[in-house]
Every structure is written in structure tokens, then in C-alpha cells.
Design brief:
The structure is a single chain. This protein is 31% helix and 17% strand. It is built from 10 helices and 10 strands. The strands form 2 sheets. The protein has a 7-stranded mixed beta sheet, sandwiched between helices. It starts with 8 loop residues before the first strand and ends in a 9-residue tail after the last helix.
């Protein structure tokens, strides 16, 4: 449990070698990083956590999704699992969460590999969720399906989920949703192709919570403290991204004392979930370096 009373779900994904902590993006959960962890298991012992409001972790009682809480989640996980200077990988919000943790307690990590972390210069938080397109989109998100099979078929046919590796998408449907009764909303958007077996599912990360998370992303505070990150750090991006590309990663890396940037041709913002094998190979190559080895 975190100091502010949030119950966290952490996972041992197995493997042999140095401890590697994996942190997911907004709206996802630890399970979607399992295919990536399986590729890394011959070199690292992989761990993962569901950030507050996601997966099987609890949500803050006061409903406050200031991103400092995600940094708290990361530090609580490191301490709870008794990890000694692990290396870490973070995707999008997960990357920002790792930076917030390292900035709060320098020396927590031996090295960081960040795929398009959500790090931007401080901006005023919008007063209305509608002012933020990501929040508005989250509030329109379909939360429930008649069955897991319905959800998998639905996501397989619609971008951006349709570009995910099938094993990742399966983990998303299995781990990011919970079973509910039809009376709890399992028939939302039903189009007549459900199996009617009573095993309706609903997103664990509720859309109102996800919308709040995106709002607070405007002012997570990590950008202003990038110079305090003391461990080797890689900033990665997909060349097809519509989120944080080369210019953003270059600007962030320039502020970190020991950092570099690398690109993934043909991948977008969801790169680690599109081609977990390709991204895992690069993660392993970088994080396998001894402490203090400059990234190149």
C-alpha cells in the first residue's frame, strides 16, 4: 500500500538476471507488457505494477490523479519488492512515472529506457475536460462488452488497438477488464453478436478516471527536473508517432546529464505494444550495460 492509502497490484513476470521494472501507459495495465517481458526474460528478472486507477490496483480515495501519485506508486513498488537499484522501462505515462520517482529519490534506478514519456514544459491545467482532446476521447470510450470474445473482436478491427500484437491485445482484454453482470453495464453498446453467457466485462480503469489522468498530464512536473536524473537514460520514439517524436525526445535528452535518443522505424506511439519483440531487443541492449556506461 502507498503512503496515501492506495492498494497496488505488482507482478513477478519471471526471468533470470538483473531486476527490471516495467511500467505501462495510461489506460493500459501491467499485463500488456508480459509479451515484452517474455522476450527479456533470458537477461532480466521482470517485474511490473498496475499504476493507481489501472488494472487490479486501487484508485485514490479522493479521486485526485495528480501524476506525483504515479511516482509514489513506482517508489512503493521498488521498496515493497525490495529491488536494489533495478533498471526500468516505461511507456508513455509509465516513462513519466519512472522519471518522477527517480527525481524524487535519485539513485533509485541503475538505468531507464523510456518510450515516448509524457514529459512537457509545465502548462496550466484545463478547467474543463473538454479542453483536452485526450480527456474528451477517454470520456467517450466504450467501457463494457457482453464478453471477452466480443471485446477482442471489436478491438481487432479498430485502430489504434488493431495494430497491437495479438498477444498484447489478448492480455489487454484479459487483464484490463473485470467480469461484471449484465445489470452492471455489460450490455453497453451490444450489437447482437454477444454470446449471452453472463460473462460481461468492464474496463477496470474507468473512463472518468482516465480523463482526469490526461488533464493532470499537462502539469506533471517532470520536465522542470530532468537535470536531476542521474542514471543513464534512453529516450525512444516511433517514427510514425503522432505524440512525442524526435524533436521532443531530443529536447528532453538534452536536459538529462547522461542520455541518448533512438528511433524505431515504422512504429507509432504504441510501439512497445505493436512489436514487443523488436522493442525488447533494444531495451535489453541498452539496459544490459554496466552502471555508468554512457548510452550511445
Amino acid at each position: 500500500m502507498t503512503p496515501d492509502g492506495v492498494e497496488l497490484a505488482a507482478y513477478d513476470f519471471g526471468g533470470t538476471g538483473r531486476d527490471l521494472l516495467l511500467v505501462h501507459a495510461t489506460g493500459f495495465c501491467a499485463g500488456v507488457l508480459l509479451p515484452l517481458a517474455r522476450t527479456l526474460g533470458d537477461r532480466f528478472h521482470c517485474w511490473a505494477v498496475d499504476l493507481r486507477g489501472h488494472g487490479r490496483s486501487g484508485r485514490p480515495v479522493d479521486g485526485n490523479f495528480d501524476w506525483s501519485g504515479f511516482g509514489t506508486d513506482v517508489l512503493t513498488t521498488v521498496d515493497g519488492l525490495e529491488l536494489d537499484r533495478p533498471v526500468a522501462f516505461g511507456h508513455s505515462c509509465g516513462g513519466a512515472s519512472l522519471l518522477l520517482a527517480e527525481q524524487r529519490r535519485p539513485g533509485t534506478f541503475g538505468a531507464l529506457y523510456l518510450f515516448e514519456p509524457v514529459i512537457i514544459p509545465e502548462q496550466p491545467v484545463p478547467f474543463e475536460l473538454a479542453d483536452n482532446p485526450m480527456s474528451a476521447g477517454a470520456r467517450r470510450r466504450r467501457e463494457s462488452f457482453p464478453s471477452a470474445e466480443d471485446a477482442f473482436v471489436n478491438f481487432s478491427a479498430k485502430p489504434p488497438f488493431s495494430i497491437l500484437d495479438p498477444a498484447v491485445l489478448l492480455r489487454y482484454v484479459e487483464d484490463a477488464f473485470e467480469t461484471v453482470s449484465a445489470a452492471d453495464g455489460g450490455d453497453e453498446g451490444r450489437d447482437g453478436d454477444g454470446d449471452g453467457d453472463g460473462k460481461a466485462i468492464r474496463l477496470r480503469c474507468r473512463r472518468e478516471d482516465e480523463a482526469e489522468i490526461y488533464v493532470h498530464g499537462f502539469a506533471n512536473g517532470a520536465y522542470e527536473h530532468l537535470g536531476e536524473v542521474g542514471c543513464p537514460t534512453m529516450f525512444a520514439y516511433g517514427t510514425l508517432t503522432n505524440s512525442f517524436g524526435r524533436e521532443d525526445m531530443d529536447a528532453e535528452a538534452a536536459l538529462v546529464p547522461d542520455a541518448a535518443v533512438e528511433a524505431f522505424d515504422g512504429l507509432g506511439h504504441f510501439g512497445p505494444l505493436e512489436r514487443p519483440d523488436v522493442v525488447a531487443e533494444r531495451i535489453g541492449r541498452f539496459l544490459d550495460l554496466p552502471d555508468g556506461t554512457p548510452p550511445s
